[in-house]
Amino acid sequence: MVTSRRAGPEEEEQAGTENKLRPHVEHPLPTRFSPAPRWCMRTSSVRAGGACAVARGLPVCRGGGRARAEGEFKETGARATAMPGSLEVPSLEELDVQEVSVSTSVLKAAAHHYGSQCDKPNKEFMLCRWEEKDPRKCLKEGKQVNQCALEFFRKIKAHCAEPFTEYWTCIDYTNLQELRRCRKQQLAFDNCVLENLGWVRPDLGELSKVTKVQTDRPIPENVYHSRPRPEPNPPIEGDLKPAKYGSRLFFWNW
After folding, report:
1. Closest Cα to residue 130, out of 57, 223, 212?
2. For residues 36 and 52, what is the distance between their CA atoms, to the nearest angstrom?
3. Among residues 21, 31, 92, 191, which is most buried (max CB within 10 A)?
4. Region Disordered: which residues (predicted)?
């Protein structure tokens, strides 16, 4: 059991006398001229006379010291000057195309006829993306897809604007944008494009069939982007003899 006693009057008076004689020292607040620690990266510059010390895996720059770790700044300079390989990016003029500014309901209402009319440029673009694995090499095919979509909606606007507007408006106002709730408007739109443009609505599953794309684009050298096979192991020279003390699979043998 720990007991404590209260200090007597003589002890309190003696302690007060010592506190009065002891000089009062206040810790100065950090000012703009005080050497405060600064966190820095390895590739950042350090002023002359400073030193970097690693604390918990991160370098700390302190401006007051003059010690400098040998080899630390040499490695820093090598890392700072290392530049990655240059990558050619197309200019904004090459990427600038007119966007198809329509909503989801419009795209959903025109999906079947759009897939039928723009089937070839769409599959040409997807084949290019799969073979090249580089979108920069398929800008031409992507522009053809965009141009086909613009011409498709321009034809609908010129010949069947009213029935198409009723169709996509019905889809937009129904719950979950279900096509089965707008079969009446769909029939009017299909009849309009059949009479004016000669488009036949594709059957269910027709656009999802596996087809072959006939293209004039040359085949890439490595279509599957597979790595080259490693070279076979060189033949072992000389005769291999068994181990002197048997198998080394188990170190402890008891």
Report:
1. 223
2. 13
3. 191
4. 1-30
